[in-house]
């Protein structure tokens, strides 16, 4: 593996928002998990708990999550950001609009944007979902370690041609997820990763996000 290969893999990966129904074999999912677990973590605590759905279990979860999202106010274990300001707000809007433009939701179309939001709870029709949680005891650092795991998972999947999308939206129903997957109360549900093969022709997969130049986030301290 060289940097070029890694960069190509990272450039290929993108968030997939429409999946084909084809199941991924359990052994292949295990391969992805086996690579992702190589992510670094503070004290090598490896704090990630991963609840993975397959087959009919995904469809049951999807139906229950949609029901939950339609009937209950969100209550994430980890509070969502209260606001995005400045450049963060700009980037948030840019990726939101890119999605809306791709799927034909126009400015002011509240029903259209609500429909698109609900696609999160349908797991974008993915055949699999991995719910990621971390011991509350480890606080923000456990969440940080799990962030690394999520990235490693997405890259490992991409290397096998499997598309992914990390989803905070799924984690917005914390109490439900604890009940549904029997996740201990002293764990924080952080996010989910829906995954499967991409429905490449779907308009929701027809755009890519960009990245800021190095100077926008790097302070060099030379000499
Ligand atoms: C922790 C995390 C949570 C996310 N939650 C959602 C989500 O709930 N719904 C969604 O459509 N995308 C979600 N995304 C995907 C981001 O919007 C996406 O990563 C970002 O716009 C960059 O685009 P890319 O992944 O295609 O490179 C999430 C990404 C991360 C890392």
UniProtKB/TrEMBL annotation:
It comes from the Bacteria. Pfam families: Nitroreductase. Residues 11-197 form the Nitroreductase domain. The keyword Flavoprotein applies. InterPro entries: Nitroreductase, Nitroreductase-like, Nitroreductase/BluB. Keywords: Flavoprotein, FMN, Oxidoreductase. Coiled coil: none annotated. This is Nitroreductase.
